[in-house]
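Person: Please work through this fold.
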Amino acid sequence: MGGLEDGLPPSKRLRSSSAGSSSLLSGSAGEEQPIAAALFRDSMARTLQCQGQEETIGSRGVIKRIEFVRLISDALYTLGYKRSGACLEEESGIPLHSADVSLLMQYVLEGNWDEGASTLHNIGLEDETVIKSAKFLILEQKFLEFLEAGKTMDALKTLRTEISPLHIRTNRVHELSSCLLSRSVNQNGLSCSGSLKAKLRLEVLDELQKLLPPTVMVPERRLEHLVEQALHLQRDGISPVATEISLC
């Protein structure tokens, strides 16, 4: 209807219309720009803060930051503060357990024994004796569950080809052998009923936590144990008859 654009070529009218739309969009985006900029600055600040953190803390520089944060996370979970523990892991960027250790724990609880035994080589263990001892714990439970399920041949194969070649805990291997020959778990006090299977797997996991170095798998209540040790040393150093020492 007689507008200025009517006399323009179609291509110019299209560009003119697009320019108007762009100005409207840019105005809308301008309102969101301060929020986006703030989020970006916050993200950059957190990244720089993490990069600037020292690997050790404390006046003597002997406490490793990663280990200290993991101890606190474990303490929070143990005390029932699960959300706080998860928040600490997220904010610090330091997980309680590495991805491979978490896989190991999952395999044990699910009864994936072969995968669990294989994962032991991926979690940073350097002591071959520790690896063999941990593998023995896993394969022993595998053997017992085969036996309980009536899979005698599978249990025998596990004993001969996986447990015996470790060449450790000979007396225990003999006990397992006698259990296999008698085909009666109860006679050797090794009952592994289905209702107790989950509990026994948790016990295997607990034994692994005691066996593996704390730097690899944080033992449950590790911080409590260290604090108790410090309190005992403090009490012994102050007075042989002291009965109560405060943390503060």
